[in-house]
From TrEMBL:
Keywords: ATP-binding, Ligase, Metal-binding, Nucleotide-binding, Queuosine biosynthesis, Zinc. GO terms for molecular function: ATP binding; ligase activity, forming carbon-nitrogen bonds; zinc ion binding. InterPro entries: QueC, Rossmann-like_a/b/a_fold. This is 7-cyano-7-deazaguanine synthase. Its cofactor is Zn(2+). ATP binds at M15, S16, G17, G18, M19, D20, S21, T22, L23, S24, A25. It comes from Sulfurimonas sediminis. Binds 1 zinc ion per subunit.
């Protein structure tokens, strides 16, 4: 992996264990940033699997500093199929409007906590793997929203704190994400996207459908196991 010379610059990378955030972190490292990895346990259905993936990806990236943050707020809040087991994860294809797998203001909360870490660590970048065009319709994945969060973060931190939120995948299709990941030798076999299962991916939830379609259009096989 070719790296650009960018000595002593740090990027706080929000990493779920999924393909998008993993590629974003690899892109930051490829640009010469020291990756500070941040992962959130929020009682999501596949929490254990996502955490295991995060740990393995951090090892692959040779991450020196990482934060694993536990949030029970989302479980108490409910209102999402990812955190409330009484709400079924849809498997019938893309829903109209905002899907029930949307977790209320999740990325806003994640970015706020990442901003605190970035200020403490002296990092000038926060990386987040949001995808606008080919995502599941989440309002907190929109470029305009992330830009507004960047402005708010810089208004609410010390005067000498200057943080840029990088979202390198925001305008990519899933097939382009797969291709870029392969180009950068990202270990896609270590990533997980399924909303439902932790052993073998279900293949039918929105996230699995998007992932599988991306691999299909890229002309390569997905290396993770499916039921």
């Amino acid at each position: 992996m070719k790296k650009e010379n960018n000595t002593n610059k740090k990027a706080v990378c929000i990493m779920s264990g999924g393909m998008d955030s993993t590629l974003s972190a690899y892109m930051m490292k490829n640009q010469g940033y020291e990756v500070i990895a941040v992962h959130f346990n929020y009682d999501q259905r596949t929490q254990a699997k996502e955490l295991a993936c995060f740990e393995n990806i951090c090892e692959s990236l040779h991450v020196k500093q990482k934060y694993i943050l536990d949030l029970d707020f989302f479980k108490q809040l409910g209102a999402s199929a990812l955190t409330d087991t009484n709400i079924e994860v849809p498997t019938g294809g893309v829903e109209e409007g905002v899907p029930v797998t949307y977790v209320p203001f999740r990325n806003g909360i994640f970015l706020s906590m990442a901003a605190a870490i970035a200020e403490k660590e002296g990092a000038e970048v926060i990386s987040i793997g949001v995808v606008e065009e080919d995502s599941s319709g989440y309002p907190d994945c929109r470029e305009e929203y992330i830009q507004a969060m960047q402005k708010a973060i810089n208004l609410g931190t010390k005067d000498d704190t200057k943080i840029e939120i990088k979202m390198p995948l925001v305008h990519l299709k899933k097939s382009q994400i797969v291709q870029e990941a392969l180009h950068l030798d990202v270990p896609l076999e270590l990533t997980w996207s399924c909303y439902k299962n932790e052993d073998k991916a279900c293949g039918v939830c929105d996230s699995c459908r998007l992932r599988l379609n991306g691999f299909k259009k890229a002309g390569v096989n997905d290396p993770i196991p499916y039921a």
